[in-house]
Write a structure and sequence with these properties.
binds adenosine-5'-diphosphate
């Protein structure tokens, strides 16, 4: 299936941004398989911000790689905006390129490109060069870095680099942004600023986020929290919107 994501009928637009159904991921090798994720069910609505918390080794990154279509589960199904996504390389590549924004612990910016060019990388679906540049500029401005567009990653602070990564992830208007430990390499002031920016862009653009972190301060700022222990999700289904206002106040 290669869906035309720009032409979704309205019923699909009301579907959850992402749904994981009965996902299990076992790593083979050694005497017995290591089961990193067990029968995980997760539904993330448009506009949701979900914190995935849990100790190191509990399976957060494994689940995020599956949620971001970077890795394929051993069993279970994945649904994006109401469409079941199959595991063919062609589909997975299209989904990652067009519908998923990624933010990583190490920022993953291209060191020889400027901040603006890095954001443009998220927009290579846009063939019109002028429109691509305009959109990238607007996204950099939205993360407060309009004055840094010519800087390369090495000339930016960690917090600024992560804001560029966030602008790149959001520029394609993804169904969901998958962020694995986005504040782990930041000091507390920058970590707080990135968390506030996530909440602000979520509020203005309505983009869903799934954020794995063991940073308690970050998670305290986020409205919905799911715990992972030994590969098992422990979901708190209700979304507490009021908490956002309290935490970023
Ligand atoms: P977390 O992100 O919560 O720290 P991970 O998803 O990275 O947890 O790891 C969960 C478990 O799966 C750990 O026991 C880890 O050693 C194991 N694991 C992760 N990736 C691989 C892999 N590629 N091959 C084998 N085992 C892995
Ligand atoms: Mg991890």
């Amino acid at each position: 299936m290669i869906a035309d994501f720009a032409m979704l009928p309205s019923a699909q637009q009301r579907a959850p941004a992402l749904e994981l159904r009965d996902i299990t991921r076992a790593y083979e090798g050694g005497a017995e398989a290591l089961v990193a994720v067990r029968h995980a069910n997760l539904s993330i609505q448009r506009g949701d911000v979900v914190a995935l918390v849990g100790p190191s080794g509990s399976g957060k990154s494994t689940l995020l790689n599956i949620a971001g279509f970077l890795d394929t589960p051993t069993s279970g199904s994945r649904w994006l905006e109401g469409i079941e996504i199959d595991d063919t390389p062609r589909t997975l590549e299209a989904v990652r390129r067009e519908r998923i924004g990624f933010v990583f612990q190490n920022f993953n910016l291209v060191s020889v490109l400027s901040a603006l060019e890095n954001v443009e990388l998220g927009l290579f679906m846009q063939r019109d060069k002028r429109k691509r540049r305009e959109k990238a500029r607007a996204m950099l401005a939205a993360v407060g870095l309009a004055a840094r567009e010519k800087h390369r990653p090495g000339q930016l602070s960690g917090g600024e680099q992560q804001r560029v990564a966030l602008a790149r992830a959001l520029a394609k208007e993804p169904a969901i942004v998958i962020a694995d430990e986005p504040t782990a390499n930041l000091d507390s002031a920058n970590a707080h600023a990135v968390a506030e920016l996530i909440l602000a862009t979520n509020a203005s653009l309505g983009t869903a986020f799934l954020i794995a972190s063991h940073d308690e301060r970050l998670c305290a700022q986020l409205p919905r929290r799911i715990e992972m222990r030994d590969g098992v999700l422990h979901t708190q289904p209700e979304t507490n919107r009021e908490l956002v206002d309290i935490c970023v106040a």
